[in-house]
Amino acid sequence: MSNITENIKENLFQIDIPETDTVIKEQTEWFKVDLPKKVIEHKKKPDWLRVKLPIGPKYTKLRKLVEENNLHTICTSGSCPNMGECWGEGTATFMILGNICTRSCKFCGVKTGKPLPVDWEEAEKVANSIRIMQIKHAVLTSVDRDDLRDDMGSKFWVETIKKIRELNPGITLEALIPDFQGIHEHIDRLVNIKPEVISHNIETTRRLTKEVRVQAKYDRSIDVLKYMKDSGQRRTKSGIMLGLGETKEEVIETIHDLKNAKVDIVTIGQYLQPSKKHLQVQRFVTPDEFLEYKEIGEKLGFKHFESSALVRSSYRARKHIQ
């Protein structure tokens, strides 16, 4: 072998190959390098996250109605751990404005893409679903519709609430709204239709917002919550997920920010990864830590403060109107 060839071979073996999530395969006449895939350990759920199967005659009856009438609830599609308890209290959650979101939050299992045109018949379908299920308190939520430049979907929110009240006299409602890009004109439509509760989730701490919620802004969400209360909304509400890498100090700071925004109701629960494509759980928060946040919330004077691993936005929602 020539000296030139020997030098080339020697230099090739001195190449620094960086780590990668994929297998690197560099092959020449003299050598081949295979680097293993980066191994990601998925954390095992602790005992306190075990979910009991929903039971009871009320749940069984409602489940049968949902299946027979092909009704869609967030409770079933999201496999909510509190479904049996909520349905037993006459509460259920429904999503409007389709099932494709214009935003790409890294914690959310809803599809991201170009939404379909608004189906104005959806309002009556949701209202009928509530009537068939004999729901006493309904929670409405929606995808973000930033594609609807004129109103961000706020007009459809109003239409849906009107239709629900028309077909379900005496029902109470919670509207879990997007931020509507902070545009007051759109938020005013919801305040003026007067649902018993309007909620908007802050979701995470200030530092993690850009990573977790991507197109959202922490301060904008705080401003939306404060604006609703200042505009005369009777009850406002927000929710936080834990386990995404936040510190205890950051959670407490977020609780204080919500209090300063005059929020009445706060829910805090454990984030669970919807799929491998979503953000990983960084830690499982202990029951003692959840209890610590609850004690802080109660001392600050929130009207309702739910804090435990399996709490979700609509957990005990009917009690929140009291």
Distance between the termini: 88 Å
Integer-rounded radius of gyration: 24 Å
Mean pLDDT: 82
The biggest sheet amounts to: 7 strands, parallel
Q: Roughly how much helix do the residues carry, as a percent range?
A: 25-40%
Number of strands: 11
Tell me the structural class.
Answer: alpha/beta
User: Could you give the order of strands across the largest sheet?
Assistant: 3-6-7-8-9-10-11
Strand fraction band?
5-15%
Number of helices: 11
Shape annotation: globular
Q: Which regions have little confidence, pLDDT < 50, spanning 5+ residues? A: 4-41
Order of helices and strands: HEEHHHEEEHEHEHEHHEHEHE
Label this structure with key terms.
322 residues; alpha/beta; seven-stranded parallel sheet; two-stranded antiparallel sheet; 11 helices; 35% helix; globular
Describe the protein in words:
- It is a single chain.
- With 322 residues, the protein is α/β, with parallel strands linked by helices.
- It is 35% helix and 15% strand.
- It contains 11 helices and 11 strands.
- It has helices at residues 3-12, 57-68, 74-77, 83-88, 122-133, 154-167, 184-193, 209-212, 218-230, 248-260, 287-300, and strands at 25-27, 32-34, 91-96, 100-101, 111-112, 137-142, 172-176, 197-199, 236-242, 265-270, 304-307.
- The strands form 3 sheets. The chain has a 7-stranded parallel sheet. It has a two-stranded antiparallel sheet with strand order 1-2.
- Strand 7 (172-176), helix 7 (184-193) and strand 8 form a beta-alpha-beta unit.
- Helix 5 (122-133) packs parallel to helix 6 and helix 10 (248-260) runs parallel beside helix 11.
- The relative contact order is 0.12.
- The model is unreliable at 4-41 (pLDDT under 50).
